[in-house]
Amino acid sequence: MDQLGSSVTVADEVACFRYFDSRDLLGFVDGTANPTGHEIGASTLVGSEDQEFAGGSYVVVQMYLHQMQPWARLPEDQQEQIIGREIVSNIELPDATSGQKSHKTLATIVGADGTEHDILRDNMPFGRPGQGEYGTYFIGYSRHLCVTQKMLKRMFLGDPPGMNDRLLDFSTAHTGAVFFASAPRTLSELVQAVQA
């Protein structure tokens, strides 16, 4: 904020925290499908396909509020089927071959050529006990905005349509925004252009 000064104003502020071994408030390890090592840049940074914006990243943020009591009343095996992983071990469950798909399956995007398209998620749990609010602040970085858009479409509309993500029966999106985070080079060029 010191560097940005009066150029920006705070529109939303949520104090988040790390929870145990990267678990969310629903009890599951979060972000286990994140790319690692050299794959991070390949999944999150625009490349030569859009040279003018190379090095930038599409950023999607959403605040989800959880209905903790109804979730806690679900048997553990039903929670695991909804998420697509075992709670304690974090082992992936087999994908459903028909009918209701898990959150893990709906959020996995595979191209026509069979290539899985990753994004980098950095979800953070938060809680406001005085207001009875508990949830997750989702932030996802992607090289191609269409990958995150397809994930959200599959979650909210279903795949097939009508079979939406059962996680949304317990977790509601209250905010959402899309940004493009330019590379430092692009920002410098913009500053130079304005100064000229």
TrEMBL record:
Domain spans labelled Dyp-type peroxidase C-terminal: 21-182
What PROSITE patterns is this protein classified in?
Answer: DYP_PEROXIDASE (PS51404)
Q: Which Pfam families match?
A: Dyp_perox_C
Alphabetic keyword roster: Iron, Metal-binding, Oxidoreductase, Peroxidase
The answer on whether this UniProt entry bears the keyword Secreted reads: no
Asked whether the keyword Metal-binding is assigned, the reply is yes
GO terms assigned for molecular function: heme binding; metal ion binding; peroxidase activity
Q: Name one GO cellular component term.
A: cytosol
Which cofactors, by name? heme b
PANTHER family noted in UniProt: DEFERROCHELATASE/PEROXIDASE (PTHR30521), DYP-TYPE PEROXIDASE FAMILY PROTEIN (PTHR30521:SF0)
Name assigned to this protein: Dyp-type peroxidase family
Give the organism, scientific name: Eoetvoesiella caeni
Name the lineage.
Bacteria, Pseudomonadati, Pseudomonadota, Betaproteobacteria, Burkholderiales
